[in-house]
Amino acid sequence: MALERSYSVSIETATGDRRIKLEAKITPVVVISCIMAATGGLMFGYDVGISGGVTSMPHFLKKFFPEVYRRIEHGAKESNYCKYDNQGLQLFTSSLYLAALIATFFASYTTRKLGRRLTMVLAGLFFISGAILNAAAVNFAMLVIGRILLGCGVGFGNQAVPVFLSEIAPTRIRGALNILFQLNVTIGILCANLINYGTSKIEGGWGWRLSLGLAGVPALMLTIGALVVTDTPNSLIERGRLAEGKAVLTRIRGTEHVEPEYMEIVEASRLAAEVKHPFKNLLQRRNRPQLVIAIVMQIFQQFTGINAIMFYAPVLFNTLGFQRDASLYSAVITGAVNVLATFVSIYFVDKVGRRALLLEAGVQMFISQSVIAVLLGLKVKDQSSAGLTHGLALLVVVMVCTFVSSFAWSWGPLGWLIPSETFPLETRSVGQSVTVCVNMLFTFIIAQAFLSMLCQMKYTIFVFFSAWVLVMSLSVLFLLPETKNVPIEEMTEKVWKQHWFWRTFMD
């Protein structure tokens, strides 16, 4: 078949005294498995996009947040930046991420003991339950409990899917296939924006229920997909199913010559089995570079300000003086840009490398956020009667799209890709757990604080985020090693021991 393009990768063994060949074909099994697994990103992205649109719908606000509704409809003297400042409203968005933070610790266990595949099934079931409860909500408590169940689904899904993709993908295209997760996140956000735009026009004020309930569709896709695909060879071998693991490896690589890669996985699994306390092992000096990079990448990803924009895009555009339909329409535009720009990352990540994409995007994000801050500082006054002219409002949308596009081909996908491919097998599951945990913690912080920060900081909030972009770009320049085209089990030898700073931590 056309998909079965063969290539080989030369690597050095741990002793460095001989070279072996890892053969692999881009088989349909690999492509189909990765597409199905990446629907976990669709599930996550839908929820990221849906909350902002729902919280701008009058009937939803009137039912659950009447104080905010009165402020928007009748608060003529209310500060233009403070119309949506409400802790309960922020808790509706952020509770999901707090639940995901806690769930990821349990997901670390299931990923290691039960496998990547079953963990994805559990993620889908949690998410379906949360979607049903949200759609049927009659009070604030039901809303929050539903969001907590969604959060459990996100925690399990974000734990298992990136690891699954990194382990099943051939080395040469590992970056592109792993970014399928982030591509599906962006598609989920776009779908959510389109659905919000449509349901906001439904007569009778029940459109928000449809928006929240449709979250069950991508969750059902993930559940069915996870039941269909096979688990990764790494997971099977790690759980002692050696023959099955080798058979799966032969099938997904499309060749009988898998012995070198199989022996590498077996050896890595043997070392992993000797680790009795994974979290304690993760803190050892030799694992510190991977841990530090994984943690700071999650912090930096959130402090780009992307989730502040994606969570609250309709709310943000309303704040800037857009009419309600125009704000939802603008959110759809940014969602479409998000999807299209992710294809740039898929194409270039294994060609130009991870560092080049991150550094270029840093410049673009810094400039766009600085322009937004200047425009808002000059033109958007504190009272709601003031706003942007049509031309300047259009410029703000362009700058937001410029920012979103740069994030979509850099920190969005690479924030998940790099941690998932750098941990050795003995710390991979627990390392991914820490990665997801930190990501969810700072996503929760941003989601819970953004509307209050917007109220207090006004336009300078974009100065705050642009300053973080400058810091993170300098960190990439000096501290982030390149990982493109490096076999996943050879990261220590090929990457960390070769880096000018991190090699001092290696035994």
From TrEMBL:
Where it mainly occurs, coarsely classed, is membrane
Keyword Ribosomal protein present in the record's keywords: the answer is no
Q: Which UniProt keywords apply?
A: Membrane, Sugar transport, Symport, Transmembrane, Transmembrane helix, Transport
Per the record, the domain of life is Eukaryota
Q: Give a Gene Ontology cellular component term annotated to this protein.
A: membrane
Q: Which residues cross the membrane?
A: 26-46, 89-109, 121-142, 148-165, 177-195, 207-229, 291-315, 327-349, 390-412, 433-453, 459-480
Q: How does it sit in the membrane?
A: Multi-pass membrane protein
Any one GO MF term held by the record is:
symporter activity
Supply the Gene3D superfamilies for this chain: MFS general substrate transporter like domains
Q: Does the keyword Transmembrane helix apply?
A: yes
Q: One of this protein's Pfam families, by short name? A: Sugar_tr
Q: Could you tell me which residue ranges the Major facilitator superfamily (MFS) profile domain spans?
A: 33-484
Q: Which InterPro entries match?
A: MFS_dom, MFS_STP/MST-like_plant, MFS_sugar_transport-like, MFS_trans_sf, STP/PLT_plant, Sugar/inositol_transpt, Sugar_transporter_CS
Q: What range does the record give for the signal peptide?
A: none
Cellular localisation: Membrane
Family classification: Belongs to the major facilitator superfamily. Sugar transporter (TC 2.A.1.1) family.
- Annotated protein name in UniProt: Sugar transport protein 13-like
Q: What is the lineage of its organism?
A: Eukaryota, Viridiplantae, Streptophyta, Embryophyta, Tracheophyta
